[in-house]
Design a protein that fits this description.
The chain contains eight helices and eleven strands. With about 260 residues, it is α+β, with helices and mostly antiparallel strands. The strands form four sheets. Strands 6-9-10-11 form a four-stranded mixed β-sheet, sandwiched between helices. A three-stranded antiparallel β-sheet has the order 1-2-3, with helices on one face. Helix 1 runs antiparallel to helix 2. The longest helix has about 35 residues.
């Protein structure tokens, strides 16, 4: 996977969240001195009048205060690390965006992609590869199909777009909203993937409005249907979630991709 603008956005969000968390923690810094099994905690706080730090011992009854200071120092170090990573990554993203990636363009030729996938997976997936199946994408709410991926697929959301592009860049054999019948009920999973290591069908469902009670209830019913028909989470069923406060990020996608790598 190449570094992308979305990677920077994920880091920006994490930096913002850490700064917000630090702002709620006490001022000053922590110093710990240990002697065998015993330790002393000191609070260093800057005094404006003397223009120097003042050292105060933190009594054992205020251990929670020491914990907060320790957490603050850890988050401060983490903030430094992320800022360093961000500064480096932003330079690379800028350079990558200007590069002409030949492999990616080559894969965008559908007949070439089919040849490559057939080479990887064999010739037993002609129906799965076929673009002639009229039911290959759910015909419900076609007006919401408006996010075009480099794969050529048109998706319903930005999150599905991220997943589709990750599957495409990893050269996986997959279909968007390919029909699947379970207990006489025809579903259109977000993504149906044939795992190369064992040629097994893997279903990937992304539930994007889990802060909506009615939507969440429907998602649970769908998961129960999958499980009752042998689709087990993190085995042959990938499930990702998001809410308005917790959108899908690259870490969730990368974790899910490991299941597809067998």
């Amino acid at each position: 996977m190449y570094p992308k603008q979305t990677d920077l956005l994920d880091i920006e969000k994490e930096i913002h969240d850490i700064k917000k968390q630090i702002s709620k923690l006490p001022g000053g810094r922590l110093l710990c001195e240990s002697n065998g099994n015993y330790s002393k905690h000191y609070h260093y706080v800057y005094d404006k009048d003397s223009k120097r730090e003042i050292k105060e011992i933190i009594p054992s009854k205020k251990l929670n205060f020491a914990k907060d200071l320790a957490l603050k120092q850890y988050l401060s170090y983490k903030l430094e690390d992320l800022s360093y990573i961000y500064s480096l990554l932003s330079k690379y993203v800028s350079r990558f965006s200007k590069h002409n990636f030949k492999a990616e363009k080559y894969l965008q030729k559908q007949h070439i992609r089919n040849l490559i996938i057939s080479s990887l997976y064999g010739d037993d997936f002609n129906n799965f590869l076929s673009t002639d199946n009229p039911d290959s994408v759910s015909q419900l709410h076609t007006e919401s199909l408006k996010f075009k991926s480099v794969s050529g697929n048109i998706l319903r959301s930005k999150s599905e777009l991220l997943i589709d592009q990750a599957l495409f860049h990893n050269n996986l054999l997959y279909k968007y909203e390919y029909p699947l019948t379970l207990n006489s009920i025809t579903l259109h999973p977000d993504f149906s993937i044939i795992r190369q290591s064992d040629n097994k069908l893997i279903v990937w469902e992304h539930f994007g409005m889990m802060d909506n009670p009615a939507y969440a209830q429907n998602a649970l019913q769908k998961m129960n249907l999958y499980i009752a028909n042998g689709f087990i989470p993190n085995v042959n069923l990938i499930i990702t979630y998001e809410t308005s406060d917790h959108p899908l990020d690259n870490q969730q996608i990368d974790t899910s991709l490991r299941i597809l790598q067998g």
